[in-house]
Design goal:
The chain is of the alpha/beta class. 32% of the residues lie in helices and 25% in strands. It has one domain: Glucose Oxidase, domain 1, CATH 3.50.30.
Length: 226
Amino acid sequence: MTTDIVRDFPRVSADLVHQASQYQAAILADVNGRRGALHGRIAALRPRMKLAGPALTVDVRPGDNLMIHAAISLAKPGDVLVIDGKGDQTAALMGTIMMTACRKLGLAGVVIDGAVRDSLEIDEMDYPVFSVGTNPNGPTKNVAGRIGHPVCIGGVTVRSGDLVVADADGVVAIERERVEGLLPLARKKVEDEAARIAQIGQGNTAAAWLLPALRAAGVLKEGETL
């Protein structure tokens, strides 16, 4: 028998969340094969906002937040609400009251493919919210949805328990089984990028890969240079 609410599921561990939170979303997306980044329409309400934690997924009908209230009641500290609001911007699905409850319960933040409101108050709370924008209209609370099931949000399938990391560049979701193996790659990429930036600072601005790539693409002939 199927249920619309999945209460129990494996979460990415708190230790792995902490380690992953040290990296930019861009670094994690790169080492994840340039996969997992949600569509850029889902962005930080304020650029300074960032979050990391296991997803608790919520599927709602556009403009209705009944199941979000239910999800807040079921969420565990550290969870990130990941809400498939179908990209609707005609009504806000969450505002100050719900965000205050999320913060009080210790939730790491909210990622919503939909609109929010009370943005100035959320800014003052400094609570991490990633949405498609704002709208002053309030939602209805009438329509059934699902909690804990996989959702497709911003073009990415996210399961409850998967890792979500978000910052000023956007939101990345990574399958929980892949996180541990990606962390050493993230560390190496940060080190490599720091070394490359140091080289540029010393005047070595030419990318070593550029000419071979141009030749492989047929832009330059063999032996030809820029």
